[in-house]
Amino acid sequence: MNAPAPFPHPYPLRHGQVSLVGAGPGDPDLLTLKALRRLGEADVVLYDLLVSDAVLALVNRRAEQICVGKRASRHTLPQQDINQLIVTKAQQGLRVVRLKGGDPFLFGRGGEELETLAAAGIACEVIPGISAAMGAAAAAGIPLTHRDYAQGVSFVTGHRREGQSVLEWTGHTGAEETLVVYMGLGEAANIADQLQAAGRAAATPVAIIENATTAQQRVLCCELASLGACVQQHAVKPPALLIIGEVVRLQARLQATLAQALAG
């Protein structure tokens, strides 16, 4: 069965065009209406490993599905090959959806792919998705900003391009800032050490959110000083992200309220 079109739309995806679509953090109910429509129109979908099975189940059954996923140090295809594959499929006159976990423009390499398509003269659109950070924070009951706890939030990646130096952590040591770290699980202990060396308090609360917004979601809370040990002790696996800051202290109280709503 094809994914349903919620309502008619005057601008369908045309043959030879590409749609960079954000699949959100995992829960298919968090897809935008436009993203759902594009999944139903696609002739070919190139998707990442972080796209959930529940979202893939909404793809047009006649569409070719190609996994081009990658995680740190483990790539199905190099990025340049993914770029070329998107171009090739569009040049064949197909309606192409490039489906990415979270949002295409937030650590999703959507900008690199859009540059490639622009250079090839291929029409493309970008459909934003709920980012992993936004989805994880909402599902765990952690407001990323709060007048009493955090006046700002930063999103960083713990995984650097090969050959590049480590991230400059001194810009993320303010007690009134929330720090969200993508792809930082394998470097959790080093990230904690570097933040403390740069001046962040050892007692800063941290939430580790695994499989956010799915039935397998798990939330672990600890202090910055024990972050590496917590990841190891509980055998946390990707996908997971880290939320660091005083807002994490609200998690236990607010999560109970969310659980009541889910229980009906």
Automatic annotation (TrEMBL):
Top-rank taxon, per record: Bacteria
PROSITE patterns cross-referenced by the UniProt entry: SUMT_1 (PS00839), SUMT_2 (PS00840)
Family: Belongs to the precorrin methyltransferase family.
Domain Tetrapyrrole methylase span(s) in chain numbering: 18-227
Signal peptide: none
EC number: 2.1.1.107
CDD domains: SUMT
Keyword Cytoplasm (UniProt): no
Keywords (A to Z) from UniProt: Methyltransferase, Porphyrin biosynthesis, S-adenosyl-L-methionine, Transferase
Pathway: Porphyrin-containing compound metabolism; siroheme biosynthesis; precorrin-2 from uroporphyrinogen III: step 1/1
Database matches in PANTHER family: SIROHEME SYNTHASE, SIROHEME SYNTHASE-RELATED
NCBIfam families on file: cobA_cysG_Cterm (TIGR01469), PRK06136.1 (NF004790)
Protein's recorded name: uroporphyrinogen-III C-methyltransferase
InterPro entries per UniProt: 4pyrrol_Mease (IPR000878), 4pyrrol_Methylase_sf (IPR035996), 4pyrrole_Mease_sub1 (IPR014777), 4pyrrole_Mease_sub2 (IPR014776), CobA/CysG_C (IPR006366), Siro_Cobalamin_biosynth (IPR050161), Uropor_MeTrfase_CS (IPR003043)
